[in-house]
Amino acid sequence: MTTNTDILLKTTIDAVVNSRYPDMAPEGRKLLEEILVRKELKKDEFLFGEGEICEQIVFVGKGMLRQFYYKNKKDITEHFSYEGCILISIESTLKHVPTHLMAQALEPAVVYMLPYERFMRLTAMSWEINLFYRKILEYSLIVSQVKADSWRFETARERYNQLMSTHPEVIKRAPLAHIASYLLMTPETLSRVRAGVL
Predict the structure, then answer these.
(1) What's residue 90's pLDDT?
(2) pTM score above 0.90
(3) What are phi and psi of 164, to 5 degrees?
(4) Does any domain span residue 139?
(5) 151 pLDDT exceeds 90?
(6) CATH number for position 30
(7) Closest by alpha carbon to 62, among 32, 39, 93, 78?
């Protein structure tokens, strides 16, 4: 009998895999399904905190999370993740060092944890899983570069419009204060951008 839990797991795997490597065969998807660990989070609950070592790559099945850090006593949003997204503290996971980032649920959430060591063993066994891993890393590099270029070269309005066109779910669902910090602007500047003043 198929349960809602099984359906969400399969839907999540398909969404995540299709966003990185849509040609992956059902056998590869099944390998991932067998090692993912489900975790439910309440709103405001932390998935991991500063100083922890992140031992897994996270697939978001339901809900929205944000990764953030503190700088000069201000909390700065680094990234938003929602259904079908991958959440990873890349330096912590790859180098096995404590993370500076925290991950917190902005809504009640269901995530699937992909244990990194088991995932690495799969990459050695399966060419498809290896390619999927490479696609995850490539995507992370591109996202980091695009974000850095946005901070360097784009106006506040351009940054907001870019977020609205690429991730409308963030605009709809995340608190404005978190959106403002993600876009490196004050809530007041964000309000002016949204009002068309800037």
Answers:
(1) 92
(2) yes
(3) -65, -35
(4) no
(5) no
(6) 2.60.120.10
(7) 39
> How large is the average pLDDT for residues 132-154?
92
**What are the tens digits of pLDDT across the range 49-102?**
999 999 999 999 999 999 999 998 889 999 999 999 999 999 999 999 999 999
User: In sequence order, what DSSP letters do the residues of the chain get, joined into one string?
Assistant: ---HHHHHHHHHHHHHHHHH-TT--HHHHHHHHHH-EEEEE-TT-EEE-TT----EEEEEEES-EEEEEEETTEEEEEEEE-TT-EE--HHHHHHT---S-EEEESS-EEEEEEEHHHHHHHHHH-HHHHHHHHHHHHHHHHHHHHHHHHHHH--HHHHHHHHHHH-HHHHHHS-HHHHHHHTTS-HHHHHHHHTT--
Tokens for 51, please give them: 């100083």
Bridge partners (DSSP) listed for residue 46: 104
Query: Does pLDDT of 192 surpass 80?
Result: yes
User: Does residue 18 lie within any of the structural domains?
Assistant: yes
Residue type, 105: A
- Averaged over 21-47, what is the pLDDT? 96
> Is the Cβ–Cβ distance between 185 and 193 less than 8 Å?
yes
Q: Is residue 76 part of a domain?
A: yes
Which range of residues forms the domain containing residue 14?
Answer: 4-128
Structure tokens at 140: 């992370």
In a domain, residue 190? The reply is no
Task: Please give the tally of structural domains in the chain.
Answer: 1
